[in-house]
Queue: 3 jobs
Job 1
Amino acid sequence: MILVLLGTQDKPFERILKAVAKEKKKGYIKDRIIAQVGCTKFSCDNMEMFDFTSKEEIEKLIDKARIIITHAGVGTITECLSKDKKVIVVPRLKKYGEHTNDHQL
């Protein structure tokens, strides 16, 4: 399973979801995809999505995931690496309205 984590930011991060959905549609991703999308409004039929859940539920999903694709939140990255997970980090960028600045770079 691939887990996509967008965190709790109040800004959308549709770019990462579009990229993952595109690769799934092309057949490059065979795994089941579960995405925590937060405040991002996105519709897609090839991944399971939810807005928010508890920290405990996120930890359980991380435990089950083969790969985590995430925004550049230090807590998420640290949690995933402490569990020896493969992590793909995509920074939120100001120019796309994904954050107020580019500190995630």
Note: The two ends are 26 Å apart (CA to CA).
Job 2
Amino acid sequence: MEKKKWVKQIPLFIIEILVLAAAVGILFVVLRTTGKDGVKKDIIDKEQIAVNEEVKQKVTESKEPDKVNEYTGVYNIAFFGVDARDENLGKGNNRSDTIMICSIDMDKHEVRLISVYRDTYLNIGNDVYKKCNAAYAFGGPKQALGMLNMNTDLYITDYVTVGFEGLMEAVDALGGIEMEVTQAEISHLNNYQISMVGTTTDGMHFEANEGVDYTPVTEPGMQTLNGLQATAYCRIRHVGNDFQRTERQRNVLIAMMEKAKTASLGTLMSAADAVLPHVVTSVDVEDMLPVLGMIGDYKVTISEGFPFRDMLNGGPIRTEGECVVPISLEENVVRLHELLYPGEAYEPSEALKGYSKIIEEDTKDYLIY
């Protein structure tokens, strides 16, 4: 069923950035093959990351925690994209405009990408209920990981965060990426390019600065986008809604991963040089080695948004403004686990059932339909 107009009106004022692919498809490949150093390593106390107790017990008892050096099973890692042009990638003013779960099935060589809509009304990791992208601003990646765990019944302890400039420079270092651009997207793609290289004229409109290069997209169809164009493409919010915006982000991620598979070592090294200053991660390179050895065989098999489109509602929730609301967080989580762990029946934890009830009670008087 087509969603009503409220979906298209979800405020998306902060610059949207997807600068995550380089960390997966490029960063670790180069670090492994060249011994190149320079990535900002975050030594995070994983015991302090919030996780629903039932989930933690199950993982501990199964002796199959989500660690890559197990060489088998499913490894989940969180990706965050933040607008941090000063390269401060931690908590503070950085709301995570891109929130993604990358689930790697090392037995089937499959990658499943789940975008969490940043305006989703959730427990932000401390029993406060707000738009979920606030978790990163309040408590940095540790709280953002806790937010994901508490609202999904997952046990994610690793993350990659990338700042604003990383996407543009990594795409350029790869020689561009192939993307299908529609006629409706062209004007917005070009306007976002100007906004990134230009000067504001009245607070809303921009003019390109003299002498600053940007290449307008003039025709629809499959074409090679450079770094500035790809970043502008990820930011488009006026064609479709937040569902389409996050789908564009995942498509750019997939295109970069595919380009990295066939890139030369020199190209990968250049891409790593470009992205390293804009990346912080909790992951040890050696933990990624089993995946890297098979990276060329991996395929993205699932690309979805959370909450799922037929299982959400929305509306202006008190002072939070327009929010995406899971109709039932509990039912959304059951479906999520079905996608990430095919063939396994899942019963949500009691803690998650409690969050689901609170969200329902908090939002029931504000939903559009």
Note: Confidence is low (pLDDT under 50) at residues 1-36, 65-70, 200-206.
Job 3
Amino acid sequence: MTQNSAKSKKIISINKKARHDFFVDDSYEAGMELFGTEVKSIRNGALNLKDAYCVITDGQLFVMGMHVSPFEQGNMQNRDPLRTRRLLMHKKEIMKLMGLVTQKGYTLVPLSIYFSGSKIKLEVGLCRGKKLYDKRDVEAKKQADRDMERYSKRG
């Protein structure tokens, strides 16, 4: 048997707003502390990363604002959809991120959530905020690339 299934990545959800609002300088993989009904709900794709962000408190990494819809067949076992969830990373990585966030003005933003084998992982981005003119520059560049592509197909 091969280890192919352990390395496969199946993306569940992507935070498109994060790439629009931030420059992503680096990304890290983190495990998540979840309950059974939350895992079942995530497997169904019932989550939203749009307003989510990460904080470091007492040397631990947490994701806040991530909405996981309650599992339909889960009765009393369902948790609060917006509860704070602990992320699992090595202590050295968390300390490194804490130093960067406090000194250089970075922020931690969830970029995507995916399956890594049978485990659910969260990709956390070390991000800097974009100004309005940065967003306009990116949009103008995309538009220019689209125009060039259309022109090259015609001629």
Note: DSSP finds five helices and nine strands in the chain.
